[in-house]
Sequence to fold (683 residues):
Amino acid sequence: MKHIIVLLLSILPFASFGQARLDARLRALEHRPAQTARRAQKSIYDANNTLNVIIETENSSKVVESIKADGFASFKIDTRTATAHIPASYLKTLKNVDGVRFIHSSRKNRLLTNNVRNATNVNLLHNGTDLETPFTGKGVIVGIIDEGFEYRHISFLDAEGNSRVRALWYRHGPDSIPTTEIPTGGDDYDAGSHGTHVAGIAAGSKVGALPYYGMAPESEIIMLPSDLENADLLEEISYVKQFAETEGKPWVVNMSFGTLIGPHDGKDVFSQTVDRMMGEGGLIVAAAGNENKEMLHASHTFTSPNDTVNLLVRKNYDEIYLDIWGQDADSCRHLSLRPYFYSGSTKTYLTETQTEEVLFEDIEPGNKKENYYFHLDKDFLGSNRYFGVEICGDAGTTFHAWTETDCGIFHSPDASFLSGDDNYLTCDGGANIPRAIAVGSYNTKNSLTNINGNTLSYGSNYPMGAMSSFSSKGPYLGDGLKPTVAAPGALVVSAYSKYTPGFSKTGSSIVTSFTRNNETYYFGFKGGTSMACPVVTGIMALWLQAFPQMTPEQAIEIIEATSTKDAYTTTEQSGYGKIDAYEGLKMALQMAEATGIASLQSGLSPVTLLKRQDNWKILFNNALDRAEIMVCDPCGRIIKRHVVINPSRGEETLINLNDVQAGTYIISITTPERIISRKFIKK
Fold:
């Protein structure tokens, strides 16, 4: 098929013999005019004017050694992938390094910004009035990649005031290194306390009588303040993995960020590399996205050879991003594009020179699909508000297109333009990693009172139990279900950083404060799948404590089998349903038993007790020879007696109390290790 837009031969995605290929944005830096190169630099250089790249290699160790020998920072991610932080002038040299196959530019992601505990049954996994258990995430590494941390917030200290943060890696430059000496203060990202809030939800400590502690309050934290560039993210996840494996501990990384720019099939080099890092005792949890009801996706299947459709994007603010992906995975081009500005009913087509400035055209090596990425900045747009593309395709060819949040929305002034929709909006850069657990949000709170005594009510926006109005929908173009599961993410109260720019201790989002040793710490509310994500991250830490060798596949199997469904859950928005931490723990214990994993530490309680008025559930944390359960009145008379022979790990015994009269009773569980007695008042 003849292309309407023909790019210069020098920038076509084919490398010279013996040289590595560059992606379209990197080729622009090499071959396009200075004006075009400047535009490309704006989107792929970091704050230090450094080019961050992901390198596909035949031998990553040798490639990293070569780059370091030339004086630049480089990291081995695995045998097939490396990263580097270089000036553009080094690209020509890097292309010719032995073993380098393909060099990708790094994309930047964006952040995706109590009743949470009750709704997920995670309160059933911590000591409390309803249940007692040893599962608190102890011995599990929880990595939080984010922005806006208060490093020594009281939520990250133990009862003696010692930091629970095992390591900190503040990515403020390519030469920064991790430290185990945790300073006071915080990072300088203007992220509205996002990282502090997220870390508090996943792993915050119990603080006095405050209910705002995390899902895994005794887990070990690694904080990674990050620019959220894909190359940096690979290095940060690799660091958490290596740290945990060195200590022989399971790990889980929280990714409350993402982007709509990408193939949405999990086959890009970033997603595939992260997926390879996961495995036994290593999990990734990511936010699905907050774009529900936003018209940020469009698609079309061509039915005849001369079929032509129009996409029109309306500018929100200063820039427009438009990412178009053909779906024929054959390394061929089946689409031709003709871009234009649109005003009234008039199309003003871009010249070839103008098109070269804003279009980055490629065949993605991971999925072999054609990709057309437009980036129009405010200088290029000028007074133009609408940008359109005529697309012609081969019969049977399908394409999907996305804009980015705040960088354009699909607009259909009449029937000649494709309509946008809110499908296929789970995020790349996190949720769409093939085996990552992608988390949507549902509502468990719709009002609260802030530190000023003002009651904030959002009842009509956050119906109790409903999926949150912002929570992005699937489906996903890869294999598997995205989102995977839903967790509470609306009006979640957690730790708040006083070091965030513009912080006010009487701000409307601050709920309470706590002072210890003349230092005041704050707690406030936020909402988004960014908040639902660490709920699941913390729950994964609890399950990993019970089953340290749990794989991503097993975690998803548990989620599928134990999550709850109701009138609000749908596959496209909540995946397998709403996560249930207690039922999932039970299945994790059973899996650990079936696979021959060693028993939990001997000092831990042998049982988990779920105490309710009509029954008590007794969950065996380890296999035992025998357990005797008795219900006695205050005089010692036995009301009920039950003996369990050889209970296995994860086995549950139900003690029915419906036929017990109102009064006070003692329930005791006698095991070879100990006797556990608890008072129970039947109402």
